[in-house]
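Fill in residues.
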């Protein structure tokens, strides 16, 4: 009788451990908000600013520390307007404002799909698209790596 109870407890703990591993695995597989984009991916841990720890490869425990992300890729022959529109459509975002500095146009956007964001000029930005002649970078809440 005692052995049976012990076996049931161990079985329950093993089942719980398996469920946790599956849950963490599912969460890790869906951790990237910018998963529709291919390129050089960087995650920012612990802080959604340039003060965050910058990592390209995540450990399983890192996934709970992600505060931001960016992806950088070479531009194709797609027009800037077409590229920005495609990214906006992918994430359901609207452009709040834009600026052009040193050949780079930055589009500061907001999507209701994501809860996080930072306040810039009184509006909440949570998607940043930066486009130059040869490169595009996309970040959430904004790009912290520079361009």
């Amino acid at each position: 009788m005692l052995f049976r109870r012990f076996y049931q407890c161990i079985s329950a703990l093993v089942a719980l451990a398996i469920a946790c591993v599956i849950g963490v695995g599912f969460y890790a597989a869906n951790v990237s908000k910018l998963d529709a984009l291919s390129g050089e991916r960087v995650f920012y841990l612990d802080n959604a600013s340039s003060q965050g720890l910058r990592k390209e490869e995540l450990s399983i425990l890192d996934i709970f520390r992600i505060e931001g992300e960016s992806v950088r890729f070479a531009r194709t022959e797609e027009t800037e307007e077409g590229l920005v529109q495609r990214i906006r459509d992918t994430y359901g975002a609207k452009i709040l404002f834009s600026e052009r500095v040193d050949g780079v146009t930055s589009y500061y956007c907001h999507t209701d799909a994501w809860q996080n964001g930072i306040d810039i000029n009184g509006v909440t930005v949570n998607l940043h698209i930066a486009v130059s002649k040869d490169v595009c970078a996309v970040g959430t809440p904004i790009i912290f790596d520079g361009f």
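The chain has a mean pLDDT of 83.
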